[in-house]
Structures are given as structure tokens and as C-alpha cells.
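Hi everyone, sorry if this is the wrong subforum. Our group has a chain we'd like a structural model of before ordering constructs, and none of us has done structure prediction before. Sequence below.
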Amino acid sequence: MRTVRLAWAEIARHHRPLHRIALVFLLIVPTLYGALYLWSNWDPYGKLDQIPVAVVNEDQPVEVDGRTVDAGEMVVQNLKDDPIFDWVFTDAADAATGLENGDYYLTITVPEDFSARLASGADATPQRAEVEMRRNDANGYVIGVMAETVQATLHEQINSAATEAYFESVYGNLATLRDGIAQADDGAAQLRDGLATADTGAAALASGLVDAQDGASQLADGATQVADGATQVADGTQQIADVVNPIADDLVPAIPAVADGAADLTTAVADLTGTVSTGADSLTARVDAGNQALADLLAAHPELAGDPAYEALASAVGRVDTRVTEVSTTLDAIHTDAQSLQSDAQALQSSVPDLQNTVRDAQSQVNELNDGAHEVATGAGEVRDGAAELATKLTEAKDGAAELSSGVTTAHTGATDLASGLDQLVAAVPALDPDQREANAAILGDPTDVTLTVDNPAEVYGRGLAPFFFSIALWVFGIVVFLVLRPTSGRALVSRSPSWRVALAGWLPILGVGLAGSWLLLAVADVALGLDPVHAWASVGLISLAVAVFTLIAHLCRSALGLVGSAVLLVLLMLQLAASAGIYPAQTLPPALLALHPYLPMTYLIEGLRVTFTGGSPQTLQRAVLVLVGVGVAAFVGTWAVAARRRTWTMADVHPPLED
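Answer:
Right subforum, don't worry. Here is the predicted structure as C-alpha cells:
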């Protein structure tokens, strides 16, 4: 308990208002330090849309199979639809100047061949398009880390536009493919319809040819009947000859005596001759009619000229005609002889009955001959009917053949269109070897490359954040230096020296120690850690200026406020840690800290050290130097005024409220 009471006594002795304020300050220091720093860095990635990034679209649209492919504009539209950063769409000159001066933290450039490379996806050799990103580490190293974090998202957005552009180009070929497929489909339909027509025509032709074959068979049967009839005629005439000759031999000696019989014989022979060769119903007339029917049939159907059946029939009828002619000639001769024997008719009186019987037999034979002629006529009619039927069937066969020809023509046209369409398909689909397929698949699967170029690269995290930590170190020196050194000595205050000299004399020891310490810091960072400043002497000069300015500010606070000044310096440190944008871009800060950002000395020291350590815009360095010089001069003038005031002593000077 005694320990607790002793501890509480130390607290209780601070009973004055200012002492209690000091205790409260100590109480809230952790909260101020931690809360402010957390507040400033609470969600920097959630404020990326406030970081200005320049977008330059230099892409030139291309025409692919009548379609315009403008991939660059698609990328721009995709970026507008998803504002990851604060996109500023501008030209290349403004983007480059803004990146150098810190107006833009990144630039994204779509090159002029972007669409052309993506459109190559419709060919056998697609090319991967590139989008160029550029950052400047002089504007802050962590923005590069942030950009790399969202680079995959950017890449996805750009690929989305690239894929859309790729399909714009490929759809041109797809249209060609579709036209080829449509043409092939139409050709296939024509081929199908043509083959169906050809099938119908072939069936009709086959049926017609079968009927034609039946007609030809009937024609052959008729021709056979004609031949048989002609044979019967031939046999009958032969029988007439066989009968007439013996009768003539028997009657020759008795001709003078058989005038009457001869006259009768002459009359009978005349009748027989008329039956055979004269009159509309004679055998000769019937044979001639048969010949005329065959001639008419041939005239009507010239294609029968080479038909074997027709030729056989015509030959048979010709033979019948020849034989009938021979019979007629023979009968004429007999008739002549019978007339010549008329004078001898008397001698034939005794032979008349036998002669009559013989004539009757001859008449019977002639009747048989007449029947054969009728059979010849009937056979010729059947030949005519068969030929007519054959002509009809052949006409049907001809029509079927025409249909078949038309169908085959249609099928040929359809097959031609089908072949043409398939040729287009083959031409539109490139032939690729396995290596080409693998390479093309890789390109089309990831059609773009997002390249990142870093100006004034910090290369490593420590080098990128060195300006921030150097600034902290130099400011902290301004706080801790007064643990050892006094702001101003009492002897100087009571001396007769001018106030400015008193202020300068109090500050110079602090400056000397600070310069030595800052140079040591720079040497260790360079030699041991590999800081390797791009502008080494400029780094030495700027750090020396920063030591001078920061110690002048610290000297002013301690000279004016004493121990409270150290608390003020600590608060200023907290504010600068939170609002100087030493790690994340200023645009990610809360509004209150963002408003405070341009009024903090550490802000300009960090910007200047980024230029001297890794490179950057000379204008940025010049601005930082001018601001720091201005702040340093103002701080010294303030210290001068404080020194002048302190040369008049008060009770507070003798007994300060808070003692070291």
C-alpha cells in the first residue's frame, strides 16, 4: 500500500491546472499517435477512385470483313464503367507532363496498333495486344504497389474489352462461315430435291421401259404371226403349182378338143387371178396394205428403223409380197395359156368333169391361200397396234428420262453450291499445326499484355519509403536534441549581443549536431543498406536544409514554450505522419488531413527527397527547397522575436510552470 501511496503522490503533486493539462496530454498521446496514423491509413485502397490516373487512347480502328473494330474505345468505355482510379482521359503530352509533375500517379496508354493486333485473332497468326502502364516512383513508391495490386483487375477489364474486340473481328469470319454454311445448306437442299426428282424420273423411266419391253414383245408376236401367215401363203401357192402342172400336162394333148372346157377353165383362171391380184379385196391389195401400214408406222416412229423386231416383220411381209407377186405372175401366164387353148376346148369335153373337180380343188387351195393372206393382214394389224403401244410407252420413258435429267441437273447445281460453300468453310477455318494451335490458344485466352514501365524506379520497398523515414528521423531529432542541449543559454540572454545573434547562437550547436547526425544517417543508409541516391550531393544538401529548418522549428517551440514546446513538436510529428502522404497518395487521406497536407514542412521534404534519392522532376525539388527555406526563415524570425522578448525576465521565467 505504501508503494501505491508513493506512486499516487507523484501524480497528486500536479495540482495546478497546467500540470493537470500536461497529465491529460500524456494520457492522450498514445491515442493521438495511434488513432491519427490509423485514421490516415485506415482504407487507402477504398479511395483508389480518388487517385488521378491518365488514360491515353492512341488506338486506330480497323475494318475486318465490313465491321469496324475499335478496341481502344472499348477499353476506354470499360474503364469509365468501372472507375477503379480517377480516370483522366487525355493526350500523351499531358499524361507525360502530369506524371513527371505528380499530377498523375499512373498513365495508361492504348497504342495505335491495339485494334489491329486484336483483329489478327481472325487470322491464323493472332498477335497479343499491349497496353502500356507507366508510373513515377518520384510520386511515391507505394502507389506502384497499389497499382500492382489492382493490375490484375485492370488486366481483366482490358481483356474484357479486348475479347469483345476480338469477337467483333472474328464475327466477320463467322459471317463468312455462316454464308458458306447457308450456301452449303441450300446446295444440299437442292441436291436432295434433285435426287428425289431424279429418283421419280428413274422410276418412271424404268416403268416405261418395262411397258416398252411388253410392247416390243407384242410386236414380236405379231411379226411371228405375219411370218406364219406368209408361210401359209407360200405353201398354198406351192400347192396350186403342184395341182396346176399335172392338169396342164394332162390337158395339153386334148386342148384342141376341149374348147368349151378350156373356155370354162379360162374363165375360172381369170377369176382366180382376179382374186389373187386384182380388186380391192385381193391378196395383192391386202399385202400392199400391210406394206403401207409398216411404212406409215416407220414414218410416225423413225426410232423403229433399227428395231430388230420391226426389221424382222418388214422382212417377212416383203417375202410374202414377193411370193404373192410370183403367184400373180404365174396365174397371169396360166390365164394367157388358157386363152390360147380356147380353140382346143372342144377336145377337152371328155375331161371337163375331172377338170372341174381339179379346179374345185385348186379353188380350195386358193381359198387356203386367201385365208393365209387374211392372217397376214391380221398379223400386220397386231404389229401396228403393238408398235403404237410401244411408241406410247417409249414416250412415257422419254418423259421419265427428261425428269431424270432435270433432277440430275438440279442435283449437280446443288452439289456445286455445296462444294462452293464447303470450300468457303475450309478457307475460313485455318489449318494449324499443334504448335500453332497451342500458341494461338494462349494468345486468344489472354489477348493482351499490360506492361508496366517505372520512371525513377525505387526498386525496393525501403528505398521507396526512405524519404518518409528520413523526414521522421530529422523531426524526431528536433525533439530529442533538447534532452541534452538548451535552446538558449541564460548568459546569452543577459549579454549585450543583439537578439538575432542570441537566437543564432542558441541554434547553431543544435544545427551542428543535427548535420552530423543526418550525414551519418545518410552514410549508413547508403553504405550499409544500399540507398544509392541518384543525386547524392543534392541529397546531402536537401537533408542539411531539412535539419536546419526542422531544428529552427524545434528551437522556436522550445524557446517560446519551454517543455510544452516539446509536446507541440510531438503533436506536429503526429499530424505530419498522418497527413504528409509519405506512404500512400494524398488523395487517399481523410478530407481534414488532406486539407492540412500542403501546409506541412514534412510534405515538401518527402517530395524533395524522392527526387534526390530516385530521380524526378527538378521543379518538384525546387519547390520543396523554396518552401523549406521560407519555413526556416519564418522560424528563425520567430526565434529572434522570442529571444528579444525573453531578455525581459518575468516570474514565469524564474519559476516556469513545467520544469525540465
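For your construct planning: The domain at 45-180+432-455 is CATH 3.40.1710.10 (abc type-2 transporter like fold). Residues 320 and 613 are 134 Å apart (CA to CA).
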